[in-house]
Specification:
single chain; 10 helices; 235 residues; Helix Hairpins; elongated; mainly alpha
Length: 235
């Protein structure tokens, strides 16, 4: 028997939209998840679903996979790594910022006011609701209404994170505030990875993603406090 394509595993056509792929994955994950109390529960099916969604659920990896299907091969591991590229891009921006010339106290004050303060506030808005949102979802992760509420939180958090990242890159940090900027940059990276992990939970119902996301948020909280302490030594 020929090996199923990722589209066949998710029971969708190859022309399906990304939204339809997500919907199909969530529907089948709910059906086959061992904790769903469904007669169809299957660890093997969940594993196949996770592999399939990991490839065609990512637009970049899907393009590579589709090309491989057209060529008669299907190796999902030979794919582009979107997050790795995003991280590399941000690192390049940060290296450029660190190369800025020595700044005066006026420049440091301006950076703290125009960059650090708004970014710090956005970070707080992202982290503060997490405990309440997870507690609410824990009542029944398979409840569509509760899951929709959690997904809305993740969507809003992602929008705030992108705004914080844009603000962070809007102005080169003064050399005197390089340590603060480095800590803040690391904090934003941990938040992004944490949101990625928790978003995976909404489609797979694997609790390990929630736990990893919480741990990444905990690290972010520590980094935020470390940045605050560094700012106190500047002013």
């Amino acid at each position: 028997m020929a090996k199923k394509t990722h589209y066949q595993v998710l029971e969708i056509h190859q022309s399906a939209t990304q939204a339809e792929i997500k919907q199909a994955y969530r529907r089948l994950a709910k059906k086959f998840h061992p904790d769903s109390r469904s007669e169809a529960a299957s660890h093997e099916q969940i594993s196949l679903l996770n592999t399939a969604y990991g490839v065609i659920g990512d637009p970049s990896r899907r393009r590579v996979y589709d090309q491989q299907l057209q060529g008669g091969t299907a190796n999902p591991e030979a794919s582009a790594q979107t997050r790795a590229q995003r991280t590399a891009d941000m690192q390049d921006v940060y290296r450029q910022q660190r190369q800025s010339t020595q700044s005066s106290e006026v420049q440091i004050d301006a950076w703290l006011k125009l960059v650090y303060t708004p970014v710090d506030r956005l970070i707080a808005k992202i982290m503060s609701p997490l405990k309440k949102e997870i507690r609410s979802l824990a009542a029944d992760p398979f409840d569509d209404e509760l899951m929709e509420g959690f997904q809305t939180y993740l969507k809003d958090a992602r929008a705030m994170l992108e705004k914080a990242q844009d603000k962070f890159q809007s102005m080169a940090n003064p050399s005197g505030a390089a340590n603060v900027a480095a800590t803040l940059y690391h904090c934003l990276g941990q938040l992004e990875d944490g949101l990625d992990e928790m978003e995976r939970f909404t489609y797979s119902y694997e609790e390990s993603y929630i736990h990893t996301g919480q741990e990444l948020f905990r690290i972010s909280r520590q980094l935020r406090q470390e940045a605050k302490d560094r700012v106190k030594r500047l002013v």
